[in-house]
Amino acid sequence: xxxxxxxxxxxxxxxxxxxxxxxxxxxxxxxxxxxxxxxxxxxxxxxxxxxxxxxxxxxxxxxxxxxxxxxxxxxxxxxxxxxxxxxxxxxxxxxxxxxxxxxxxxxxxxxxxxxxxxxxxxxxxxxxxxxxxxxxxxxxxxxxxxxxxxxxxxxxxxxxxxxxxxxxxxxxxxxxxxxxxxxxxxxxxxxxxxxxxxxxxx
Length: 202
Ligand code: IMP
Known about the structure:
Shape: globular
Number of strands: 8
CATH class: Alpha Beta
Number of domains: 1
Order of helices and strands: EHEHEEEHEEEHH
Bound molecules: inosinic acid
CATH topology: Maf protein
Structural class: alpha/beta
CATH architecture: Alpha-Beta Complex
Number of helices: 5
């Protein structure tokens, strides 16, 4: 397994929020992070039907264009009663000609759950995959899950995306109601990072 300490790493995301979140997580480990946007890299098309496949597409692309080790993440919401949907299409469900609208995406989730005829609890999980690709072609991925259920109506104004309808297991508040610090301690992204840290920094 490869260690990351002391490397210059491209973060294959154009999302400023993710960039600073990942940068902060890596800060204690002497990793110099540079964003794909800063290097003028394009955004590759995510054509795979798995989080792992799409995270690898982004990391491979950033590595091939920069010649540096590259890290990418891909994530989304999997709902059992919907056969794993919206899954890799989590962001797409919120795309409308008028712009991004997660309120509408959450209404669609609820509508499809009612149509499915499945009883509550509507079990679901957030899933995150982090992929790292090295210039010699060595690749590694780390998965993180946060189990829970879908609730309706929406609860809470915090967070982003599907947070107001996701109740994490063992909690009485949705991700939309939880303090960000608490959410970040139990999130799928945090779980994937914990795995990465154990392997790449110890
Ligand atoms: P991506 O990983 O940036 O492609 O994001 C995928 C999509 O999954 C996001 O746009 C959200 O719709 C959803 N998603 C991923 N993580 C979270 C989360 O922590 N809360 C709410 N929605 C999320």
